[in-house]
Design a protein that fits this description.
Mean pLDDT: 79
Largest sheet: 7 strands, mixed
CATH architecture: 3-Layer(aba) Sandwich
CATH topology: Rossmann fold
Order of helices and strands: HEHEHEHHEEEHEEEH
Radius of gyration: 18 Å
Strand content: 5-15%
Distance between the termini: 29 Å
CATH superfamily: HUPs
Strand order of the largest sheet: 3-2-1-4-6-5-7
Shape: globular
Number of helices: 7
Structural class: alpha/beta
Length: about 270
């Protein structure tokens, strides 16, 4: 079975067993692969994107292009205006350059809190994360559980290479962000993203002024891995003999994952 077929099988299983489910899309290359699969097959999976208020113009334009191309509606989720205004008033619009703490607080307001709202009522969370995007994601599971959000989390492209992604995009003529062609493999907020060199990893352009290390904004933190992972979704993808996210009992997995990192801004 091809990787594309496996990824589609994963999406179909999530839609069937973990609905309502949603894809959180940054409109990056990987998320466009998943958007294409969902839109072409008509899977009942919501697609939403976080408009932080600081995105590139090219990213915002892609929202309209995607909706017109596929004839679908993307849900756009924005930060709370008062929280943004308070941050800017207290620290300044670009205070994230001054310290990691202020950068993480900005991410919390503009990305993490809106994500929480976007996932309310959902049982399945789908992302376009890949192991090859950075060393910090090298052990990324295909399926897991986010203990803080109490939601099953799926990364259908975890095993894909960048070449796999672009081969799919070209074959299916998927619309993409023109910034990718200008050296931006990973695209976030405009002031926090730069183009990368050929010898750098894909996420080196994110928060480049900070010391090297785990560069995350808080959307993706430690996740309990399904064992075994597999894509058959037998027994409803059970972890330690229990469902990842049993609808009738959300405390079970919370107890089992008590020792894992919590959800917070740790630096997409």
């Amino acid at each position: 079975m091809s990787r594309a077929a496996q990824a589609l099988q994963c999406l179909e299983a999530v839609a069937a067993s973990y609905g309502p489910a949603a894809l959180s899309s940054s409109l990056g290359a990987e998320d466009m692969v998943l958007t294409d699969m969902i839109a072409r097959t008509g899977l009942p999976i919501e697609i939403f994107t976080l408009d932080t208020g600081r995105l590139h113009a090219e990213t915002l334009q892609l929202v309209a292009r995607v909706q017109a191309y596929y004839g679908i509606a993307l849900r756009v989720v924005r930060p709370e205006p008062m929280a943004v205004a308070d941050y800017v008033s207290r620290h300044g619009r670009d205070a994230f350059y001054e310290s990691r703490a202020l950068r993480e607080r900005c991410c919390e307001i503009r990305k993490v809190e809106p994500l929480r709202r976007a996932l309310e009522g959902k049982r399945g969370w789908i992302t376009g994360l890949r192991r090859g995007q950075s060393p910090a994601r090298a052990a990324l599971p295909v399926a897991g559980y986010d203990a803080a959000l109490r939601i099953a989390k799926f990364n259908p492209l975890a095993e894909w290479s960048g070449e796999d992604v672009w081969a799919y995009l070209r074959e299916h003529r998927v619309p993409t962000n023109p910034l990718h062609e200008r050296g931006f493999p990973s695209i976030g907020c405009e002031p926090c993203t730069r183009a990368v060199r050929a010898d750098e990893d894909e996420r080196a352009g994110r928060w480049w002024w900070e010391e090297e290390g785990r560069k995350e904004c808080g959307l993706h933190v430690a996740t309990t891995q399904v064992a075994p992972v597999g894509l058959a979704f037998q027994s409803d993808l059970r972890v330690f003999g229990r469902e990842i996210h049993p609808a009738e009992n959300t405390e079970t997995m919370e107890d089992q994952t008590r020792d894992h990192d919590g959800f917070g801004a740790t630096g997409t």
